[in-house]
Structures
1.
Amino acid sequence: MADWNRGHGAVDDMLDVENQFLAENLASKVSMLKSLAYDIDKETEDQNIYLDGMDSNFLSATGLLTGSVKRLSTMVRSSRDNRKILCYVSVGLVMVFFLLYYMVSRLQS
């Protein structure tokens, strides 16, 4: 009977060594996942800061466009002399748009 218990001791030692190896392997994987989660959190915070900045930029652009539309509406409602100016401004804006489109397309190719 004593020999039989000694055999179990060797198996127990072998299982203990294997458990230690698996525990260390698991600990390294958990550490790697923790590092990955921290990197994702940091990237998320950076993206939120970036999006908040874009939000304020869009709000300022919205304010500028609203003011321009109000001025344009006022000009449309005024007398016929201003309608001629409105036509020139509209044609000028279309030409500027096409000029910018042409310049951007030339820079990309």
2.
Amino acid sequence: MKFSMPANPVQRRASDNKLMFVGMTGFEWLTTTTALVILYCALAGFFIGMLAVSKKIRNDGNTFPRPGTHSPFRDE
């Protein structure tokens, strides 16, 4: 399967004579780009938050007792 650009990527829509680039009008490009930027910013924020939480847990080291270090039956 070969991908090829149209001979002229800038065309006019016959029904309403709007200028299009690769099948989408300028407003459609703007809304699509805005939605993708918002999506990727949300994903980046989520992963940065997860990284911050994991670094906090790892650097503190005392959030959870390590298995085998505490026994309710032994005097410590």
3.
Amino acid sequence: MKTSAPMVCGQGPRTDRLVKKSFKRTRSKDIQLHHLPTDVLRGILSRLTMKEAVRMSILSRKWSRLWKCYPKLVFTRAMMRGSNATTGPAKHSRTRFIRGINSIRRQLKSSNLNKFVVKFALRKRHAPHIDRWISFCAASRAKHVVLDLCPGPKASTDTDDKYSFPLHLLSASGGDLRCLLPKCVVLERLSLTQCRLDELSIGQELGRLHCLQVKFCILQKLDIRAPNLTLFVFAGRMIPILLGEPVKISEATVDLITSSDCFSYVFTDLVDALSHVPSLSISFRIETKVINFVKNQTRLTNLRRLVLKIDIVGSPEVTGGILRLAYLLELAPALEELVLHMCCFDSAINGEPSEDAYRPHPHHHLKTIKMTGFYGLLGQVELALYLFGNATSLERMIIDPVVRNNWFIPPMGGAKHNIDRGTSIALNKLSRQEFRKVLDILY
């Protein structure tokens, strides 16, 4: 007894035979779009926007079957603007937006969803709908999932109304994700913004995950074993971060949101988690009065480019807190480019910098250094002198008094006094004969 293969999303032997017969009976000049093979039509549909694909689905039964396999679902306010889904009061617009997503989701039968994106202001009371969307992503083997439930400025402090991510939907045990469902192993990109996660701890290795972004989430721990991770983005509080030795990682960005000194955390916990990264950017805060720290045994042996965006708080006459940054030459032996974007709220005071306050450590690879927000604090001057004296291959050092840390930039009018003073101190303390070939002071 002969059995035929099941038809999936418009495919099957019967459909292919009909297409071939149609081509034989039709002259080339009479060939129409729907005469093309199913695979070709599916490729055409995947290149259309979702709104265009919905319109195509009403042309014929064939296009309706193809629409059920549409691989990229992107729901944003701009995408829904053509309908009435985002007009009127906020409560009604959210309801219409959710109904629109649910209506489209019920029409689809895709087993290999490529992308599922929701960018709309939703809250905790909408959790049942969002949970169903996440279950749909897991069942559809989604590769790229984005839930941005607070698009726009991320300054809200209303944590009680934030959506709690349903980790139990991804865990066979319903606990802290110690046993992840096999369906989630196919994830290639994971982006979470402003979700309440408590603890994101996944016991099973995510071998296909190459992009991980977790921003502004209520999170106590991040533990994901992703050996093939190439891009990591994190914004939040100081928490344990474990990524499982991502040896292929190429870029990482970390923004720490805290009012305390982060130096020890950055150069211990983060260094351990991102020891293989060649390009790293970190935003954090340091205090001038905190001078002690424990050196890390781990080295950033692959690091070539480092960007630090630093808020400096504390007494301007104390230098040890800032001078701790000299440890970078020891921590990253192959570093070639160092960018220090600094922002301090105190003006410089008179004083003579010490040139032997930190133990010398010659560095033979550092070629470019850029220091912005140089207000002329004693700690800044001593750090610049230390870098000059130990970076033996230095080709260029840029001193810029203007704050450019992209986190908090003071108005130019109010900062003019500090900028002028920083420029004057840089010219007086750093513009020496032995430095002039590589020093560039912007003013």
4.
Amino acid sequence: MAAATGMVMLLAAALAILAPPARALDRGEFPSGFLFGAATSAYQVEGAYLEDGKGLNNWDVFTHTHYVDLMHNLGVNSYRFSISWARILPRGRLGGINSAGIAFYDRLIDALLQKGIEPFVTLHHFDLPYELETSYGSWLGAGIREEFDYYADVCFQAFGDRVKFWTTFNEPNLFTKFAYMLGVYSPKRCSPPFGNCNSGNSQQEPYVAAHNIIMSHAAAVDNYKKNYQAKQGGSIGIVISMKFYEPLTNTMEDILAAQQALAFEIHWFLDPIFFGEYPKEMREMLSSDLPEFTPAEKRLLQNKVDFIGVNHYTAIYTKDCISSPCDLNTYEGNALVFATGERDGVQIREPTALCGFYDVPEGMEQILRYVNQRYENAPVYVTENGYSQYNNNNMEDMINDVGRVNYLQGFSHIPSVKNHATNAKETKTYWHAYRGGAKVRGYFVWSLMDNFEWRFGFTVRFGLYHVDFTTQQRTPKMSAKWYRDLLMGYGPMDEVQTLRTDS
């Protein structure tokens, strides 16, 4: 009950924070080292899946360097991208290093640095060599740990002289749920009541996979800190998907539901990394289905990350499913929580094209303050934040993406393009969290350009640049112009050109 009371107080405090008076954000108010960037991932934008000796990865069905000029013209000083494991090690550690794959990323990193853009590199963004999926069941077999450790070491050796920001995994909490609980990501494993797949065990496999990911992360961090950090001068962290959960009602059941949702969303991976144990909420609910850390694993976890990456898109309400029945075939179902965007028939804020994602700017400050309080004031980078729009054939609507501009303005507390009621209120954002003491060191928009959005394919668009998926022509949207104006002092954007694959 003491823990529940503490959560009530923390949630109340988060909801009671008063934002400063509304005014435009000035980039000059941030330290010179603050990173403003855009993000993509290898599988979603690279293509060319059999070129440069790259093996078939478990997601495969124009290289980055054509995008460097886009980012330079935007005025960003950092680019967050992922390395394709299959491009570096097409068959894993026993198949040899692909020198053409190393050269591919060498060219990208050098091109970025020549334009004054800092590489911010993710080692695993959902994809891996297909051979490792068949050999280990992807992340279910403990042997995958040695594979990842070797892959990370190859990358540190090849690129660490120029890469100063590393993240081991992108959203492993989301990935393990989608891949091993709901069965909507590769390798598509699940069981009732969470889903119906040809194989899998939704009650156990997500936690086995997560355990192997956590220990793979720990081994890579240990290796980097012991063998590379001092001479290369970089830092290493992990990126976690983070919704902010608010109780649907003020009942103790829904308040505890919000606590459970946060435990299964955030604490699941960060508590072991910072405290050496899984959260007690998960231990109490899952019992023996949740693995135990051995003494050797706990020693390996003592190497702390240098920063936390926060991918935040929305806040949402939580309803208790312990005392009342719910559909568990949902993202929050394993926490026995039902998430909803409505309270008494009123939406939490304006919905976006992605189901369950809403334009709730104050959720950003709430999640950043929450992470700051729980995890020892660790430095934080907002590694993803973005707005989805429906893909349709109306080019004018897609280019004039007012909804995305309003979303980004709301999250940075800049006056909106339109006087939407949702943006007329005082909002709380990453900037306010920064001024309030949270160590926010950077902000990355997702995404630089429209791309393949995993299970949603090409049905939704997140990009600052519109992409014609037939011709690969890229055209700046209103949001790209807005971001450039923010970063470059509200100057014109005349020099930003649309680029084609043959340009």
